[in-house]
Design brief:
Length: 410
Amino acid sequence: MTSRRVAISSGHGLHIRGASGSPVPPQLDEVNEARRIVDRVAETLGCPKFHDNTSTSQSQNLDAIVAWHNKQTRDLDVSVHFNAYDGNAHGTEVLYVSSAGLELATPVCNAICDAGNFTNRGAKKRTDLAFLNGTDETAILIETCFCDNTSDSNSFNANFEAICRAIAEEISGEEFSEGGEPPEQPEVPSPPLVPAQGTVHGLAEGDALNIRASYSSSAPAIGSAENGDVLDVVGEAYNGSTRWLRLQFGDPDGSGVSVFGWASAEYVNVGGQVPPAEQSEWHENITATVFGNNGDEQDSAYPDIDMITGSTKGVSFPYKWRGEPRPTQVEVSGPRGKVVTGIVDVGPWNTDDPDYVLGTARPLAESQYINGTVAQNGRVPSNDAGIDLTKPIADAVGISGLGKVRWRLL
């Protein structure tokens, strides 16, 4: 068997629910059970996984899943679903669109059926599914069994571990002992005095490693490197158990523009330890407001962001990143849950509050609101908000109009 790099996701989403069985036990829910499989398989393989917790429409959901997969370094894309029909239909099928997908869909289907004692409905070609058509690599979509069929549901519950192990082995090309102990996580290295350098390797002849930059004012938004190129490694982070390196290229000596990008450690050989990626402390108990929705559509202060509307995903801080790279990820936590998103505008109330946004101070808007003083936008604040959320982000964390959140830069 040949080892494959896998990216795996659960079908549908937290707010875009899939199929479900009857209210009579065993009562399987597609989203819940697909997430159980993905979690267990990803734990076994140590591969990246994705659950959509933010989308509020089917189109957003499909776009989010496809976009996540296409950002991963992998050989195979896998989406896990459950079927439903009339309560009588039963069995397993694996969907594909390409010939490479067919070569994998059949053994995956056979393995799941053997492990779960399901009827084998076989591999089926589908040309109308966004996941199969939108992902860049070989892709399969697993319909594990029929969640509205009592026999299938009972077999799934009784053979859950065996089913997950069968999926993990077939999609990865590796074999695991019963119980599937996950691989050990790499240790986080301690920072050296200076950034390390990494050498690009592992690319086929003629290939280049594309690095998407988080910021650029004059350099291109995409950088590339070839085998043997040397890059400065200035940080690292972990996505599940996958290690990503923060790279610096351009002119780090200050004579030009420095562009920062991310690339999988699989392609960059680091000769020494690298410092951990910068991550700010949580800003606690911050008032959040919602903007860019229901007549509040507006241009962004950042030229790379289109018009902010009710479908834009992101946050706004009372500070504008100008000469330095704007952080690409912000974690926001609210009453309903957490979400990671980007920065799309400047505000609320103030435009230059670095002690709060980049430090540990409280937002200027809090004292301005209490004292009735004018903020940097020329108005007296009508609330003490220190962060603005677009509607999709507000919905995801459970804020309607105005509420309390905590946030940090990743």
